[in-house]
């Protein structure tokens, strides 16, 4: 199947991954017709991603949006693990990797709702492309077979009418409940598992600086395990917004989870605050999962980000991993568009991105969540290998830098497979 140059791409899902892909594809010449649709009436403002690692920052720079993200976000410095009583066990200083300052790759905090608004605005102002909100993919007519010349899906428009949408390729960026994934893979479409324990994520205005808290802390405790991360700094500490995400008991309904929030805060947070001492800006319960699809490409259908793989949010690998997919897919499309690769490079995409999830994202994120609730906090510094290494890195700055730079291992250079003459047969060796 050859596809040079690409004439059109249909992106399903206007979350951060779909919008970023649209913005990158808009830089290709000759122009690619980009259609981006989303089933929801408007952007999702739930409290989700806030922290983006270096690979995501590199792609924000490439898309020309990093300056604004750095202007309105911030670069956290200190991260640590503590016991419930506040005792600090180990941690590191992220500013060691802030070499390039505001232009560098350092980890950055920026609310995902803001990110989506920024990407949508840039897409519109640079290309005139607007998101078709309220447009839902409901079925497929063609594109799942290798020999299909294009992809056609059935889209339900806001007033209920169904219309066929066709393109050279379709990219499912439609999140954890992806319809595109189901159309590609049928019922058994998402191997992996869901954690028994639900989590509750809140954005909370509270003064945790009075307790000497760092930018991010993970609290190790079998019952009251949680993360508290500063997500909006302010000169007046009382104005800081914190992402407080905590684990809950299995088997509770969403209503019960929400009702228990005041009790949980009083029992687990330092100072045992009453509701009058903080203000909840958003709160939402989540079920969390470790899942990865078996194929990210079938015919002219592709998957990226949450539609392809999920992990628990502790450590911020969810969207960072999704954004790495977007950078990878863009490099593949760019090579095809310029005639430097045929579309077998998309099979390399499928193989490499899955491998990165299985070898890095899944084990690291699993370690991040279990570290908080599956061990005795009093023995964590003797028995938890990762924590022991982080403790060693407190006095070994080179080790600290190495540990923190590991997120860069998610990135793969697809231009290695560019070669007009040779094609991309090397793909098969991966
Ligand atoms: C509490 C929490 C905290 C998190 N924190 C971090 C963090 O700090 N760092 C990090 O990297 N990640 C984090 N994550 C993960 C991150 O939020 C997700 O990985 C990210 O939002 C996924 O983006 P996406 O674009 O893939 O999908 P989504 O944002 O889910 O967007 C999918 C879009 O597809 C649309 N859609 C669905 N079905 C259809 C259809 N049939 N037709 C058309 N449109 C459709 C939906 O309406 C939606 O707008 C966190 C997650 C949670 C829950």
From TrEMBL:
Q: What's the domain of life for this entry?
A: Eukaryota
Q: Name one Pfam family in it.
A: FAD_binding_3
Name the coenzymes or cofactors required: FAD
Q: Which GO terms describe its molecular function?
A: FAD binding; oxidoreductase activity, acting on paired donors, with incorporation or reduction of molecular oxygen, NAD(P)H as one donor, and incorporation of one atom of oxygen
Q: Which Gene3D superfamilies match?
A: D-Amino Acid Oxidase, subunit A, domain 2 (3.30.9.10), FAD/NAD(P)-binding domain (3.50.50.60)
**Which keywords annotate this record?**
FAD, Flavoprotein, Oxidoreductase
Q: Name all FAD-binding domain ranges.
A: 8-351
Name of the protein in question: FAD-binding domain-containing protein
